[in-house]
Specification:
Arc Repressor Mutant, subunit A, DNA-binding, disordered N terminus, about 110 residues
Length: about 110
DNA sequence: CAGATGACTGCGA
DNA sequence: ATCGCAGCCATCT
């Protein structure tokens, strides 16, 4: 039995907001943690990463593959897996880095 | 209860 | 141009 029962099952925090926003990312587009944090009013982009790190993102079918750091580099535990998903979305990825990241960058505050 | 960690970013040297 | 440090919030041990 799962002795390590995650206590973050309360979607009343940033994680929920982040997941929702990430879900709104159009296919073939990518964004950065800082942009999301800024858009949601989070002083620290770290929390965005933490929100994604939570296993909830997978449960919610959140396209974490479309979320990369400012350099467009795929961060996380399974970069290969996410890279494949990005390619499937039509995003070219080279060396775990999004090609034309600047062009494919999707700013939530700008588009929303 | 307190200390350390973490999917980051921006600025300074 | 590259390298290093500090900031912030929530969770974990």
């Amino acid at each position: 039995m799962p002795t390590t029962q995650p206590a973050y099952k309360k979607d009343d925090n940033l994680a929920n907001l982040v997941h929702e926003l990430v879900r709104q990312i159009p296919k073939g587009r990518v964004t950065s943690y800082g942009a999301i944090a800024k858009s949601l009013g989070i002083p620290n982009p770290r929390m965005v990463g933490w929100a994604m790190h939570t296993t909830e993102n997978i449960k919610k079918n959140v396209p974490a593959q479309r979320v990369v750091n400012s350099t467009g580099h795929i961060t996380g535990g399974h970069p290969e897996f996410r890279r494949d998903l990005l390619i499937k979305d039509g995003v070219k990825v080279i060396n775990n880095r999004v090609a034309d990241f600047k062009r494919l960058f999707w700013d939530p505050a700008l588009e929303l």
